[in-house]
Amino acid sequence: MSASATIAALLSAILWGVAYVASGEALRRNPPVTVYAGLLVAVVTVMPLAWVAGRPWRWPQAGDWRDLILASASAAAAMWLGYLAIARSSALQASIVDISYPLWAVLAGWLLYSQKMPNAQTLLGGAFILLGGALILFSEKP
């Protein structure tokens, strides 16, 4: 992974952490649909950033639509369900469950795009992540 990709991934993780906590606070006073509607702000603010980054909008090609629709629908559903999880538990608990997403990304890549499965060390690391998350979740008092 390049340095710029590592920095982008780390900043993404940090911002997701902030988003989980801020969503938890917003969901104390607002229904999930109100918080979810805030994603429109994200779309409006990200579009200009794409121009600044030198990756302006282009109309998708015919072969892109399936992946774009799947990515958009999955992300939208994931955000909605994440807000429901935070509203019904806590940002910490929801984020602990959310860290299982690499497992689902590997499985989806294998099933949908014939990507190769990870090696044994990667799978073992994933198992440790899931085990650590389970330990945290089950050790918390309700």
Structure description:
With about 140 residues, the chain is an all-alpha fold. It has one domain. The chain contains seven helices and no strands.
Walk me through the topology.
Elements: H1 3-29, H2 32-37, H3 39-52, H4 65-88, H5 91-98, H6 101-113, H7 120-139
Helix pairs in contact: 1-4, 1-5, 4-5
- Class by alpha and beta content: mainly alpha
| Gyration radius, in Å | 17 Å
The profile of the biggest β sheet is: none
Shape: globular
Helix residue percentage: over 70%
What is the straight-line distance between the termini? 40 Å
Beta content: under 5%
Please tally the β strands and state the result.
0
DSSP helical segment count: 7
What's this model, at a glance?
This protein is an all-alpha fold and 142 residues long. The protein has helices at residues 3-29, 32-37, 39-52, 65-88, 91-98, 101-113, 120-139.
